[in-house]
Amino acid sequence: MSVEKVKKYFEGTELEGKVMEFNESSATVDEAAHALKTDADRIAKTLSFLIDGNPIVIVLSGLSRTSNKKYKDVFGKKASMIKFNEVENYTGFAPGGVCPFALNKGVKVYLDESLKKYDTVFPAAGSSNSAVAVTIPQLEKYSNYISWVDVSQ
Questions:
Q1: Taking Cα atoms as reference points, which of 31, 55, 58, 33 lies closest to residue 47?
Q2: Which residues contact 130 (CB under 8 A, 6 or more apart)?
Q3: Per-residue pLDDT tens digits for 74-108
Q4: pLDDT tens, 44-69?
Q5: 64: how many CB neighbours lie within 10 A of its CB?
Q6: Going by C-beta distance under 8 Å and a sequence separation of 6 or more, which residues neighbour residue 101?
C-alpha cells in the first residue's frame, strides 16, 4: 500500500509517526479539508504533468488553479496533465493519494508560491484517506523539490 511507502520514507525523521489516516476519503481538496477540519486552501494538492514524456509534480495550495500562461512561461511547454489511469504508473501513487514524498525515481517536484502564505500545509500521504501536516521547510526538505515556481492563478 502506498501510504506504507510514505511512512517508511519518513522513518528516522521528524515526520516519523506523523502520517494521519482517516475513516473517510481525503482524495479531493474538499474531502481532505473536511477530514482535517481545516481550510481547503491549506490542503497541499499535488498535480501530475508530463514534460517531453517525463513526469513532474507541482504542489499548490488547495484552492489554487494552474495558469496555463504561467505554466508555459516557467516550463516552456503547454501544460499536459498525466491521464488519470496513468498517474500511478508515473508517480507511484494513485489519484487522490499523490504526494510529493517517496515518488517514483525521476519524478521532479516543484512547489508553487501559493503555499508560502501558510506556515503549515497538508499534503496527501500516499493514499486517498491520508495526509501529513508539514511546515514549509519540512515540505522543502522531504519533497526534494527542484525549485519554487509561480504557476497558479
A1: 58
A2: 3, 6, 19, 20, 21, 22, 26, 97, 124
A3: 999 999 999 999 999 999 999 999 999 999 999 99
A4: 999 999 999 999 999 999 999 999 99
A5: 20
A6: 6, 9, 10, 123, 125, 126, 132, 142, 143
What is the spatial distance between Cα 140 and Cα 109, in angstroms, rounded to a whole number? 10
Task: Say whether 150 sits in a helix, a strand or coil.
Answer: coil
| CB count in 10 Å sphere of residue 137 | 9
Distance CA 62, CA 28 (A): 9
> The C-alpha cell of 56 is what?
513532474
Residue with cell 492563478: 153
78 three-state secondary structure:
coil
